[in-house]
Amino acid sequence: MNIDSRELRDALGQFATGVCLVTTIDDEGVAQALTINSFSSVSLDPPLVLWSLQKDADIYPVYATAQKYCIAVLSEAQAEYSNGYAQKGGHRLADAHFEAGHNGAPLIKGALVNFECSLEQTYDGGDHIILMGRVTRMSAVDPQPPLVFFGGGYRGLR
């Protein structure tokens, strides 16, 4: 059976996901951010999480080799972060959006939680690379409504 990629994308869009930013520092010392919705927990012991990145993404070389990064779970109030850092060429992290983390990767201010990670393993995932990270530290803020993506747009929880 031949699967149409647009139909598959629409079908996968029926699974509600949270929205995250993955942040790191590039080789020039510049803070970078990338919007993802492919975040998932893997293991509690050891503490492992994963996310995936499209191989033809403009920021691919930065993240494919990043040894330290942070995954920030965004709040509903941070939709503009999601939109901005999803844009091709729009990955330079604004100074007002972050503070330095313990592992060197930027922590997103006001995020629901920041997971500081070290790269554990990468896997080939077709047109994506799957990055598994070991959580080395996490920090949370007061609970807020999460930013949720479903059916091609942001949704609220009821």
From TrEMBL:
GO molecular function, one term: riboflavin reductase (NADPH) activity
A Pfam family the protein falls into: Flavin_Reduct
Recorded superkingdom: Bacteria
Flavin reductase like domain ranges (all copies): 12-156
Matches recorded under Gene3D superfamilies: Electron Transport, Fmn-binding Protein, Chain A
SUPFAM superfamilies: FMN-binding split barrel
InterPro entries cross-referenced by the UniProt entry: Flavin_Rdtase-like_dom (IPR002563), NADH-dep_flavin_reductase (IPR050268), Split_barrel_FMN-bd (IPR012349)
Keywords of the record: Oxidoreductase
Annotated family: Belongs to the non-flavoprotein flavin reductase family.
Protein name: Conserved protein/domain protein typically associated with flavoprotein oxygenase, DIM6/NTAB family
Native species: Congregibacter litoralis KT71
